[in-house]
Amino acid sequence: MQTTTVEITSFGYLHAAPPAAHLTIDLRHHFRDPHVSPELRYMTAEDAPVRKAVLNTPGIAALVEATALAVAAFAAGPSAGTVTVADGCAGGRHRAPTFARELAARLTAAGHNVSLHHRDLGKPVVDR
User: pLDDT tens digits for 86-96?
Assistant: First the structure.
C-alpha cells in the first residue's frame, strides 16, 4: 500500500460550515448523540466515558473502516497529494472528534502520515 498524507478535521455543524474536504462524514443523524446524556453533555472526546459511548454505538466501527478504505482508494489514484477528511456532528465535541481520533489511529497504523485537527472541540456546549 502507498503511504499518503491525510488531514483529518472534526467539526460541529452548529458552529460553522463544514471545512472543504475530499470526504465529508456527517455523524448527526445516524448515530446517537452523547449530548443528550446529562452526565456526558459537558465532557468531550478527551474524556474516556465519551469515547466509550461513541465507539460502542452500532455502526461506528464499520464507518471508520469504510472511511479508511475510501482514503486508501483516494491514495491509490493516479494523482499524488494529500487526502482531506472532515467529519462532523452537531457541536463538534463528542462524536466527530472521537470518530476522527479512531480514524487517525487506523490510518497511522496503516502507515499513512496523518494530521488531526479538532476545529470545535474547545468551544462551549451548544444549548439546544
Answer: 999 999 999 99
Domain residue extents for the chain = 17-118
What are the pLDDT digits (tens) for 62-94? 999 999 999 999 998 888 789 999 999 999 999
Exposure of 74 in the CB half-sphere (CA atoms within 13 A)? 20
15 vs 126: CA distance, rounded Å: 9
Give the three-class secondary structure for 5. strand
pTM exceeding 0.85: yes
> Which has the closest alpha carbon to 27: 15, 11, 6, 41?
11
Q: How many CB atoms lie within 10 A of CB 54?
A: 25
> Which run of H or of E encompasses 24?
strand 23-26
Q: Sort 68 into a burial class: Cβ within 10 Å, 0-12 / 13-18 / 19+.
A: buried
What pLDDT sits at residue 79?
81
How many Cα atoms are found within 13 Å in the side-chain-facing hemisphere of 118? 22
Query: How, if at all, do strands 23-26 and 5-12 pair?
Result: unpaired
